[in-house]
Amino acid sequence: MRSTKNKLLLCFKWAFLIVVLACIYLPILLIIVYSFSGEPNIGGVNGFGPFTFALYKKLFTNSPRLMDATKNTLIIGVSSALIATFVGTLTSVGLYYLRKGKKAVNFVSEITVINADIVTAVGFFLLSIFLTRIGLPVEKGMGWLIVAHAVITTPYVILTVSPRLHQLNPNLYEAGLDLGAGPMRSLFTVIVPQLIGGMISGFALAFTLSLDDFVVTNLNKGTNGVETITTFVYASLRRSLDPAIRALSTIIFVIVLVALIIFNIVKNRKLYRQQKQQNFR
Amino acid sequence: MPESSETKKTLKKKIVFKPSYFSFPYMLLCAIFVVLPLVLVFVYAFIDDKTGQFTFSNFAEVFTGANLRLLLRTIGIALLTTAICLLIAYPTALILASSPFNKFVILALLFIIPMWMNFVLRVIALKELLTLMGIGNGLLASVIGMVYDFLPFMLLPIYTVLTDMDKSYGEAASDLGANGFKTFIKVTLPLSAKGIASGITMVFMPVFSAYAITDMLGNNNTTLIGKIINELFINGSTWGVGSAFSFVLLLLVFGTMVLSNLVGREKPKAKGGAK
Amino acid sequence: MKEQKTFDRIIEVKNITKIFDDTTVIDDLNLSIKRGQFVTLLGPSGCGKTTLLRMIAGFTAPTSGKIFIEGQDVTEMPPYKRPVNTVFQKYALFPHLNVFKNVAFGLKLKKIPSGEKKAKGGTEKEIMRKFTKAEIEEKVNRALKLVGLDDYGYRDINSLSGGQQQRVAIARALVCEPKVLLLDEPLGALDLKMRKEMQIELMKMHRELGITFIYVTHDQEEALTMSDVVVVLNDGLIQQIGTPKQVYDEPANAFVADFIGESNVLSGTMLKDFSVSFLGAQFVCEDKGFAKNEKVDIVIRPEDIYIYPLDTGKGQLAGKVLGSVFKGTYYEMEIDAGGYEFTVQSTTEATPGAMVELRIEPNGIHIMKKLRTVNQFIGTVSGENRVDFCDGSFDINTEIGGVALEKGTKVKVFVPFDGVELTDDEEDGEIGGNVTHSLYKGTYYQVQVYSDTDEDFYIDTTDEWDLNDRVGIKLDKNKIRLEVIEEESDA
């Protein structure tokens, strides 16, 4: 009696998970399927139409504005994530050794994380005007967006790198100094190699957050026509959306999937190696 | 001459480099790009756009008529989204963290993967599906879109807390004669409060800024405050009112931050006491 | 000759003070270390020994004072320019490099004179060059051989045992050919057997290399075994510097006696030269030069006490054996005599419960001046029968010789050790404080309390207090004595 009840409960649990997962993946699957259709409208009178790579071809040859937006997104994402990773790692090391004022710095970087995007966006907007007024002309656009995205994502890098720093031997940096390496050389030849894993995770997080940003970008992209994927798609929704977006979505989804699978395999292999090494000892 | 270079040298030596100095560039960045903008928002909120004088009228405008309705509507949608996310995410997390589901790490990962994909592209995909189903535009579509976008942010913290939670708590409770439901109410739920709190902060506040979603999926009746603030700055120069709006949001952010900290603080106490 | 002499002192520490967040860790410390010696900094945790080592290495800057290496002021020189290398407590090996690369790390950065000279701006300058690959390989292999890890070059650091990692750390420091090798409790993480082995190896290395070793440890046995010179530290102050034999046989004060080896510390009175009284009996000793009836500390090593059966008349004190433990080569017994529990070591056992006589030969009695005999503070008379000191105001009879002191008079306040009472509840006392030291003196404990007003109080009490206990300090007004401080101008 009890076991049938348990089995029923287990079935119910599976069903629940599957329904939620279905809701999450149905839209994405729809887009992926229709990325191979030549029909401009999903669910139009012509149905699916013939299977074709036309949308992929169009994306790379005949969707200049969508390609431009993708290029901008990548440039902003990569450069801001690189800056954030560099500054964030440097800061994590500095904060690790800082005796006074650590709490204040952590509080300020927490503000960046928790603040509403729109307030951050307004802040950067007003800052650009303020800086221009005091004689430091700031032009809203690509450069300004890179700076803004770097500032917004640096705290996430700090949050990813700091915990790894605390697992290190506290004398490692000093050992570098002791053997004749200056502060910068000790940082880069002794500390940074230990943090590579955290830095890669931090970079990935910063890059994704930059890709995903809409609010800050929309208010700070200026009037020079710098569009990212998010702002471009948002703006063109009113008019007609380039169906090549389906191809782009599919490509991005596949990249995310592959990246996550690789990341998990590497992580598990590292864990396995560590366990093996411990057993060996 | 050699003497002066000598003194220079000794002066230079005085500054002994400490590794904590590595954090100074970021402190400078924080001052310019985090603190200064907040100060500017605060200052502009009290400046009349036309006269440039000190005024409270910006705030009066925020809390009157259409604007107030907009603010209340945004709060309403945020609450609704948060509640639905919680209702879906909590049981999901509970199932995922329980045996036998906790053996499949990939299962939990499946729920998180969409988080890494561009949200506008996801919303576009959802829009196609909803249009197909005939509920393309409106309040319902907007809320579905919000929940669709924010669900992982509610799920992740709750799931993390539940997996970290010592299984023996539940066992100890059932050992002491509590049935399944009682165990859940008395033990699991209070211990997962921290995860719920951070889930709520990760969903509730961002909804205020997520006007792109309701814009793409809704109609004129689903406009959120974020969009109005954006327009106050983009079109024309009504920065004072926009800053006042931002300032009110800032207060809301700090309010939720304090509240969630209060909930978060109780947890380690309970843990320490039980161990 | 004089030049030679100053050069002989490879390290000189002059008036070094280090304050961390209002806590004085090192207090005006002076120390000079001779070239080629094996010097151990010994003390309990928190005594400042590691801080002193870190200041010599350059990781921590002193708050004031100067440090010289070979006569050169290095106080502000960063660690990467100092001719010293460190072996860290937990090795601090670089996990991303293999054994060979760890050891080669310092060599790759080092620059040596190339032998060629270049004329630059009128002066001839030596051209510096880096080591060649072959030179590095040769030096690293030699260093690895020295520590007994010949074929371990390409091993991963994480695959080594604790002892092997320790050896790599030593090789990594030695390969840089430092003038001084600093070792911060390097054997602390090893098991006992490994530790003994490494002690012998380190001593061998020191002999072979002939460079100066400065070794930090809290293990007195390790210090006595390995060093040429032992520096005993406590509370940031040097208690004694001497050879292992000197610090063991002639401890400078009760702290050293108590910390190094086991010892019985008692309180007594010096009757005259070569005669001391304690526990109600009179003893002949080898010390002189004390004031008549001066209160002194007496240290007796457990092996310097001889046991005789009762009524043989050979002993000076009668006692009862409380317990006995066999320690491999001798018995260690607890014997109660005259209210003091002696620790006695002997090759023959006295059965617990038996009554015995104890004899202490004159050369077994070590007399030491008491560090302080009275608590002394500076205060001000603030009213009739009222004196302010230690941030408080106290009711004290301000009449000296029938004359009331004027308000504002500066006075010395003497509070005898038995004029202070400690209370469990901080609120019951007049000043709060923490117990920093407790020493059993036979019939009572001498407790040292560091008060919240930054003063040290010494208290004689029959109660036992634990270190770091929070206590209240209560003063017995009747036992406090005042003395007027004569103003300089009057004298």
How does this structure look, described?
The relative contact order of chain A is 0.12. In chain A, helix 1 crosses helix 11. Helices cover 78% and strands 0% of the residues of chain A. In chain B, 41% of the residues are buried. Chain C folds into three domains: 248 residues, P-loop containing nucleotide triphosphate hydrolases (Rossmann fold, 3-Layer(aba) Sandwich), CATH 3.40.50; 108 residues, RNA polymerase II/Efflux pump adaptor protein, barrel-sandwich hybrid domain (OB fold (Dihydrolipoamide Acetyltransferase, E2P), Beta Barrel); 111 residues, OB fold (Dihydrolipoamide Acetyltransferase, E2P), CATH 2.40.50. Chain C is globular. The interface between A and C is medium-sized, with 23 and 30 residues.
Mean pLDDT of chain B: 81
What is the element string of chain B, with H for helices and E for strands?
HHHHHHHHHHHHH
User: How many H/I helices of chain B?
Assistant: 13
Radius of gyration of chain A: 24 Å
Work out the helix count of chain A: 11
**Helix/strand/pairing category of chain B:** mainly alpha
Helix content of chain A: over 70%
Structural class of chain A: mainly alpha
Order of helices and strands of chain A: HHHHHHHHHHH
* Rg of Cα set of chain B: 25 Å
Low-confidence spans of chain A: pLDDT under 50, at least 5 residues?
none
Q: How would the global form of chain A be characterised?
A: globular
Largest sheet of chain B: none
Oligomerization status of the protein chains: heterotrimer
Q: β content of chain A, as a range?
A: under 5%
Compute the average pLDDT of chain A.
Answer: 88
Approximately what portion of the residues of chain B adopt beta-strand conformation? under 5%
The total strand number of chain B stands at: 0
Give the CA-based shape of chain B. globular
Distance between the termini of chain B: 71 Å
Number of strands of chain A: 0
Task: Please summarize what this structure is.
The complex is a heterotrimer of chains A (281), B (275) and C (491). With 275 residues, chain B is mostly helical. Helix content of chain B is 78%, strand content 0%.
Observed structural traits:
heterotrimer, A: 281 residues, mainly alpha, 78% helix, globular, B: 275 residues, 0% strand, disordered N terminus
Q: What is this structure's SSE topology?
A:
The complex is a heterotrimer of chains A (281), B (275) and C (491).
Chain A: H1 2-34, H2 54-61, H3 64-97, H4 102-114, H5 117-133, H6 142-166, H7 172-178, H8 183-212, H9 215-220, H10 229-236, H11 244-280
Chain B: H1 2-14, H2 24-45, H3 57-62, H4 65-97, H5 105-112, H6 119-133, H7 139-164, H8 167-175, H9 180-191, H10 193-209, H11 211-217, H12 225-234, H13 239-274
Helix pairs in contact in B: 2-13, 4-7, 4-10, 6-7, 6-11, 7-10, 7-11, 8-9, 10-13, 12-13
Chain C: H1 2-8, E1 9-20, E2 23-34, E3 38-42, H2 49-57, E4 64-69, E5 72-73, E6 84-87, H3 99-109, E7 111-120, E8 123-130, H4 133-146, H5 162-174, E9 180-184, H6 192-209, E10 212-217, H7 220-226, E11 229-234, E12 237-242, H8 244-249, H9 254-259, E13 264-272, E14 275-278, E15 281-284, E16 294-300, E17 305-309, E18 317-326, E19 331-337, E20 340-346, E21 355-360, E22 366-369, E23 374-383, E24 386-389, E25 392-395, E26 399-400, E27 403-404, E28 410-416, E29 420-423, E30 431-440, E31 445-451, E32 456-461, E33 470-475, E34 481-484
Parallel strand pairs in C: 3-10, 3-11, 6-9, 9-10
Antiparallel strand pairs in C: 1-2, 1-4, 4-5, 7-8, 11-12, 13-14, 13-16, 14-15, 16-22, 17-21, 18-19, 18-21, 19-20, 23-24, 23-28, 24-25, 26-27, 28-34, 29-33, 30-31, 30-33, 31-32
